[in-house]
Write a structure and sequence with these properties.
The structure holds two protein chains of two kinds.
Chain A lengths: L3 E4 L2 E5 L4 E7 L4 E9 L6 E7 L4 E4 L2 E6 L4 E6 L8 E9 L6 E3 L3 E6 L1
Parallel strand pairs in A: 2-11
Antiparallel strand pairs in A: 1-3, 3-8, 4-5, 4-9, 6-7, 7-8, 9-10, 9-11
Chain B lengths: L4 E3 L2 E4 L5 E6 L6 E8 L3 E9 L2 E4 L8 E7 L2 E6 L8 E8 L14 E2 L3 E5 L1
Parallel strand pairs in B: 2-11
Antiparallel strand pairs in B: 1-3, 3-8, 4-5, 4-9, 5-6, 7-8, 9-10, 9-11
Classes of the chains: A mainly beta, B mainly beta.
C-alpha cells in the first residue's frame, strides 16, 4: 500500500535552533517528492521538489534530502525563525494511475522566542 | 497575478443542503486540482483537470461530490446533499504543466487560500 509517514507529529524549538523533519514512504513507482510549508489558515506553499536522481535540494534555510534506496527524506531547517512556525507536509508522486499524489499528515513546527 | 482565487472563504450550511465551492486558477495554467484537508486525514486529492477535462476523479469520495470546469478560468466543486462529515477545508490549486501528477514533472502547484466548510 502506498503510504507516506512523517515524524515527529509536532515539534517545539527555540528561535535560532536547527531542526530536522522526517518523511518515510512506501510509494512505488516513485516519481518525485515534495515538501510543502503550510501556514495556519493558508494553502500549502512548495519548498522543494526532488526527483529520483536528486539527493539534496536547498531553498534558503531549508534543505531537503532524499535517499531513494531507503525511501526516506528529511527537511532540515537552519537557524529557525518565528515565521517558520507552520505545518510541513511531505508529498510523494507516483506514476500509478488513480493514486498520483500521496500525502503525509504533516509535522507541526512551533518556533518560540 | 492575484494567484488562485477561491470563494467563499467560509461556508456554514445545514445537513442536506447543496454547497458549491468556486475556484479561479492562475491564468495560463493548464492543470487544476481540488483537495480536501481534515485533521484526521490530512490533505487528499479529490480530482484534477487538464485543459478543462477531468483526468482523475478517483479521489472523489461519493456520488454526492461533483466537479466541473466549464472554461479555463473557472471551476466548481459541488456537494449535494451535504453531510456533517464533509466539514473540511477545500483547496483549489493550479499548475502550468501538471505539478507532478502522473508525470516526471517538477512543476509547482499553486494553492488557493481554501474554503472552510462547516456542515451542521
Amino acid at each position: 500500500k502506498n503510504q507516506v509517514e512523517q515524524s515527529p507529529q509536532s515539534l517545539i524549538i527555540l528561535e535560532g535552533k536547527n531542526c530536522t523533519l522526517q518523511c518515510n514512504y512506501t510509494v512505488s513507482p516513485f516519481s518525485n517528492l515534495r515538501w510543502y510549508k503550510q501556514d495556519t489558515g493558508r494553502g500549502p506553499v512548495s519548498l522543494t521538489i526532488m526527483t529520483f536522481s536528486e539527493n539534496t535540494k536547498s531553498n534558503g534555510r531549508y534543505t531537503a534530502t532524499l535517499d531513494a534506496d531507503t525511501k526516506q527524506s528529511s527537511l532540515h531547517i537552519t537557524a529557525s525563525q518565528l515565521s517558520d512556525s507552520a505545518s510541513y507536509i511531505c508529498v510523494v508522486s507516483t506514476n500509478q494511475a488513480g493514486t498520483a499524489l500521496i500525502f503525509g499528515k504533516g509535522t507541526t513546527l512551533s518556533v518560540s522566542s | 497575478d492575484a494567484g488562485v482565487i477561491q470563494s467563499p472563504r467560509h461556508e456554514v450550511t445545514e445537513m442536506g443542503q447543496e454547497v458549491t465551492l468556486r475556484c479561479k486558477p492562475i491564468s495560463g495554467h493548464d492543470y487544476l486540482f481540488w483537495y480536501r484537508q481534515t485533521m484526521m486525514r490530512g490533505l487528499e486529492l479529490l480530482i484534477y483537470f487538464n485543459n478543462n477535462v477531468p483526468i482523475d476523479d478517483s479521489g472523489m469520495p461519493e456520488d454526492r461530490f461533483s466537479a466541473k470546469m466549464p472554461n479555463a478560468s473557472f471551476s466548481t466543486l459541488k456537494i449535494q446533499p451535504s453531510e456533517p462529515r464533509d466539514s473540511a477545508v477545500y483547496f483549489c490549486a493550479s499548475s502550468p504543466r501538471g505539478g507532478a501528477v502522473g508525470h516526471n514533472s517538477t512543476d509547482t502547484q499553486y494553492f488557493g487560500p481554501g474554503t472552510r466548510l462547516t456542515v451542521l
